[in-house]
């Protein structure tokens, strides 16, 4: 059965850097998904893209959380408006 949709282009952004889970931080596909991409059907490619988008979302949320924690640790404590007794 032929795909009804046009071919799905690779999400590769030519910025490959694997994390400790073997996920590319450029396109957020796993090494296995990158290797499967060529022969994958349109439905398989869409499935890979959905998983990659979820990974990207989680990655960015975790980075924001880490930055927020760091910001709180490095920010000066709020000053108390009451005069000292």
Can you put this structure into words, describing what you see?
It is a single chain. This protein is mainly α and 85 residues long. The chain is built from two helices and no strands. It has helices spanning 31-36, 42-74. The longest helix is centred in the last third of the chain and has 33 residues, at 42-74. The protein is elongated. The protein starts with 30 loop residues before the first helix and ends in an 11-residue tail after the last helix. 12% of the residues are buried. The mean pLDDT is 88.
- Overall number of strands: 0
Percent helix range: 40-55%
- Choose one word for the global shape: elongated
Q: Output the number of helix runs.
A: 2
Query: Could you tell me how far the N terminus lies from the C terminus, measured between alpha carbons in angstroms?
Result: 82 Å
Summarize it:
The chain has helices at 31-36, 42-74. The model has no long low-confidence stretch (mean pLDDT 88).
List keywords for this structure.
2 helices; elongated; single chain; mainly alpha
Question: What is the topological layout?
Answer:
Elements: H1 31-36, H2 42-74
